[in-house]
Write a structure and sequence with these properties.
Layout: E1 4-7, H1 12-24, E2 29-32, H2 37-45, E3 53-55, E4 60-62, H3 66-71
Parallel strand pairs: 1-2
Antiparallel strand pairs: 1-3, 3-4
InterPro entries: Glutaredoxin (IPR002109), Grx-like_ET (IPR051548), Thioredoxin-like_sf (IPR036249)
Protein name: Glutaredoxin-like protein NrdH
Pfam families: Glutaredoxin (PF00462)
Length: 76
């Protein structure tokens, strides 16, 4: 399953999300939203207003959510 973490610089929730994924061995791609206006606009259009935004082929959510991150282990 492809997992993408859309983040921005100096974002504590973004760093916590990536740290937890690293600890759990979850592979992901990181996209810096300050460098990708097209992706930022797409995510805003989906209703997301804060970073990070985590996108898989099954779901998308925003913010640091430790339980959802742990749930990715069985899919990664």
């Amino acid at each position: 399953m492809a997992i993408t973490v859309y983040s921005k610089p100096n974002c504590p929730q973004c760093e916590l999300t990536k740290r937890d994924m690293d600890i759990l061995g979850i592979e992901y791609e990181t996209v810096d939203l300050t460098q990708r206006q097209d992706q930022l606009e797409r995510l805003i259009g989906l209703g997301h207003r804060g970073a990070p935004v985590i996108e898989t082929d099954r779901e998308t959510w925003s913010g640091y959510d430790q339980e959802k991150i742990k749930g990715l282990v069985s899919y990664a």
